[in-house]
Amino acid sequence: MIELNTTMTVAMWWIRRDLRLRDNQALAVARARASHVVPVFVLDTNLLASPAVGSRRLAFLLSSLRLLDADLRQRGSRLIVRRGDPEDKLNELMKEVGADAVYAEEDHSPYARRRDARVADSVPLGLVGGATALPPWLTVKKNGDPYTVFTPFSRAWKALWDARAEMPLPAPPRIQTPDGISSARLPAEPALAHDTPFPPGEAEAQRRLDAFTKGADALVYRYAPRRDRLDVQGTSGISPYLRFGMVSARQAFVAAQQAVASAPDPEARHGAEAWLTELIWREFFAAVIYHFPHVSLEGFREDLHGIQWRNSPDEFIAWCTGRTGYPVVDAAMRQLKQTGWMHNRARMIVASFLVKDMLIDWTWGERWFLQQLVDGDPASNNGGWQWAASTGTDAAPYFRVLNPTRQGAQFDPKGEYVRLWVPEIKRVPDAYVHKPWRMPREMQRRAGCIIGHDYPEPVVDHALARKRALAAYAEARAAMKGPPGRP
Domain boundary residue among 291, 319, 353? Predict the structure, then answer.
């Protein structure tokens, strides 16, 4: 144990998905209950070995931890890093520094809950809110059952929020940490690309939130008409920062509500309200995975467990690499591969295409997204994929199959988005930019885009694939119901 002053009390702040000093409830409780705080991040070897850990997301995390350490040092503290199993490392550090307790922000994924239960068996662990604006167990029906439909969940959530909402906490001016505590080095690799669209750290998170929500011309006021457009900047760009808690969910909701209250006109107010609703979807998916942890392994709807997937490896590779022959799908998948992010509308399009056009198991896509996304969140990713696959709570109807050609024309009407990410079709005329296979051969030559040579032919015929998907879903539902007369 390090040598401590006899009047010194020590608490540990276990950092997980709360890489921030502003509005950090775990840090606030630790400071309130002890004179000295030890900020600790455990490089969990269980998570690092997981196939779902993407190198780009890990690089973003490591870079943000370095910036958090710099912020802590400005306040008289520093980040203590340990590598290994959290249960063992926290136990060791607690004995080393003579801490009375460990405080952390709640995390609601199935793995996190199992991990925290193990840790709580060996050290005094206090969990406080923060990963979501309201704890997922709070928003339930009057009989205690969880909601499985978004609209009533949203109404109940808003009522609770209005009754309980608190203003975000300021960052503490100083954090006292005992001297002499050993710390492992953060890995140098994977390194964040210099041209990343998501610079790391809390300061960047705060800058983006302010830029999106503050001022009479804030983008949030144009969110409703622009949020589905692939060819314009219409979203907040803070999802990776929410994922790692560089901005708190509570602060995001307060910013959204303040934007609603300050809206200069009804249209602007509608835009801010639309963004607020999207934030509540994040709360809903967190609640679903909290109450129904099995959805991380299988579909929520039992009547669709028996879908006979085709699961073509070649078609899956074509989807992953952006070589399906459908420009909007390929553009989105290439953007994901190159940047670690894609627009939510694009996520819906490519998910529908994989599951229903290709008839490939949605869990394949869910896993690929987690490996690629900087903002890959187990609850939101799972919820989005199950929505698209029609297998989840409050999912899209099973017969809803997005037409990639129509989706591209509607949300990228001039083809600016697809031309950016699919240079093979850069010279294709607007009339064919979302359906280049329909170009006459001479036009293909003039555009420098010979289908089947410069750019692939469509891997499936959408109209036929739609019929195939509907039949597969109908067969699964019929098999679950059983033959006539079954009790």
Answer: 291
